[in-house]
Write a structure and sequence with these properties.
Largest sheet: 9 strands, antiparallel
Strand order of the largest sheet: 3-2-1-13-12-11-10-9-8
CATH superfamily of the largest domain: DD-peptidase/beta-lactamase superfamily
Radius of gyration: 22 Å
Shape: globular
CATH topology of the largest domain: Beta-lactamase
Distance between the termini: 51 Å
Number of domains: 3
Number of strands: 21
Helix content: 25-40%
């Protein structure tokens, strides 16, 4: 066990409170611990800013996509009972008729490692829209985001494929609010059951690659594993997770039902940024009906500390074993991400983001340290804070980045790899879009001759540079992110992989 730097708890508290303050988050909780001791566990700011209620170690927050590791662990527990195998074809449980009919089948472990070939789709956008309809802050941007999924030619919509993100935006803007609400409600009803989502995917998406070949983050896959869990266990997904994972680990304050969370006197109020950028109370939590396996768990610092300690002790070692490359130096297992080249350390982790939720859990086996971070505002850099905690524990500079490549050529883009005009087969310049409205990117050259990216929705314009002919680095505030260039057999660029795979328009 390493000797930690002097004053570690004070350093961690300063870093956490600085992140909370700089991000504008009303509240943030952090727990840093070993197998036997707690180094720091406390709240900063408020779980309810207007009522001046503090964050405590027992405050219930949303955890968003951290839920995915609970879905995977529940599947492993059911495997121990002989109810399923990770090698089972998903078609054994879900009525896919077309998607994998002409090649190797997708198996449960592919669904649990984002390696099934399923592209990102708009189903979660449709499913959570109704929960935001009356929210004073989120209603309008939620509807605007949903309209992007209705543009002719995007995933699942009839029409000629759009030729640019500007086309998508213009076509979406032409949809009236009334039409959008009507269509989104109908689509949500269509994909709101396990059978319905399966049927919609089977009819409307094209696999990105052979199962096991390519990583592309898929909320749909984890939601559908929830359906598999229900089928083999003969009980609702949330009840099975409680029985197999939450109760055995003593996670008594963790739950899926929103009504129970809101009845708890120590729960977080969720916040979002309004049209002017101010952090405002946005009380309607996002919900997705029975599609819970991808991100609907709520939990606390104390409960998640018990969970991470279980992972650190090897209680579910298979979750962290690499299954597929997910980025430079990074892999993904079953519901957990992994980095093995971090200054001699391994970091196993997962983050989460929904409206009013930023979260991260993780641990480093070499340091023997586990970390939990929870916040009640989206957009808080929880995963970067987790890396800063690892840095503090390891005695590294606090601002050391997990991904920090050097430019292949420091000159402006015109002198870098792949420097061809937009539209030429080998060029990386252009517009990229996934089935999720926020999974989009435009790579372009500025008037100064520098490569830039307009990423996400609403777009954030950031500097970029080529790391090599098939890797672009994006310079977000406080971190860098990789975008892998995907080419066909003729070297023509067809997509970017940056978490989700985005197809080139």
């Amino acid at each position: 066990m390493p000797v930690f730097p002097t004053g570690l708890a004070s350093t961690l508290a300063e870093v956490a409170d600085s992140v909370r303050s700089e991000s504008g988050s009303p509240g943030l909780g952090i727990s840093v611990f070993t197998a036997t001791d707690v180094i720091l566990e406390r709240g900063f700011g408020h779980r309810d800013r207007e009522a001046a209620l503090p964050v405590t170690p027992e405050t219930v927050f949303g955890v968003a996509s951290i839920t995915k590791s609970f879905t995977a662990l529940t599947a492993l527990r059911l495997r121990e009972r002989g109810l399923l195998s990770l090698e089972d074809e998903v078609g054994r449980y879900l009525p896919f008729a077309r998607l994998w009919s002409d090649g190797p089948p997708a198996r449960l472990h592919h669904f649990l490692s984002h390696a099934s070939g399923l592209p990102a789709t708009p189903t979660m956008t449709w499913l959570r829209a109704a929960s935001q309809a009356g929210d004073p802050v989120a209603a309008a941007p939620t509807l605007a985001e949903a309209k992007l999924t209705l543009a002719p030619g995007v995933v699942g919509m009839p029409g000629r494929p759009p030729r640019s993100l500007a086309d998508v935006d213009a076509l979406a803007a032409a949809v009236s609010d009334h039409e959008a609400r009507t269509r989104i409600a109908a689509l949500a009803a269509q994909v709101g059951s396990f059978a319905g989502m399966t049927a919609w995917l089977d009819a409307h998406v094209v696999p990105l690659a052979t199962p096991g070949e390519l990583y592309s983050y898929s909320n749909d896959a984890f939601c559908l594993v929830g359906g598999v869990i229900e089928r083999v266990a003969g009980a609702p997904y949330a009840r099975v997770v409680e029985r197999e994972v939450l109760t055995p680990l003593g996670m008594r304050r963790s739950r899926f039902d929103l009504e129970g969370v809101l009845a708890d006197p120590d729960h977080a109020t969720v916040y979002a940024r309004d049209a002017g950028g101010a952090v405002a109370r946005s009380p309607a939590w996002q919900t997705t009906g029975i599609m819970q396996g991808g991100g609907m768990l709520k939990s606390t610092l104390v409960d998640l500390r018990a969970y991470v300690r279980h992972l650190m002790a090897g209680g579910a070692r298979e979750l962290a074993e690499p299954r597929v490359a997910s980025g430079p130096g990074a892999t993904y297992g079953l519901g957990l991400a992994r980095r093995d080249d971090y200054h001699g350390l391994t970091i196993v982790s997962h983050g989460g983001s929904l409206k009013g939720v930023s979260s991260a859990i993780g641990y480093s086996p070499q340091l023997g340290v586990g970390i939990v971070i929870l916040s009640n505002l989206d957009g808080v850099p929880a995963e970067q804070l987790l890396v800063s905690v690892v840095n503090a524990c390891a005695g590294l500079p606090l601002d050391t980045l997990a991904y920090d490549p050097a430019p292949h050529d420091p000159a402006p883009y015109a002198g870098s790899p792949g420097a061809t005009a937009a539209g030429e087969p080998g060029s990386v310049l252009g517009d990229y879009l996934s089935g999720e409205p926020y999974g989009r990117m435009r790579l372009y050259v500025s008037e100064a001759g520098e490569l830039r990216a307009a990423a996400g929705w609403p777009p954030l314009d950031v500097p970029a540079f080529m790391v090599g002919p098939d890797e672009v680095a994006l310079g977000y505030p406080a971190r860098k992110a990789a975008a892998r260039v995907l080419r066909d057999g003729g070297s023509k660029v067809w997509g970017l992989q940056s978490g989700r795979v985005m197809r080139r328009l």
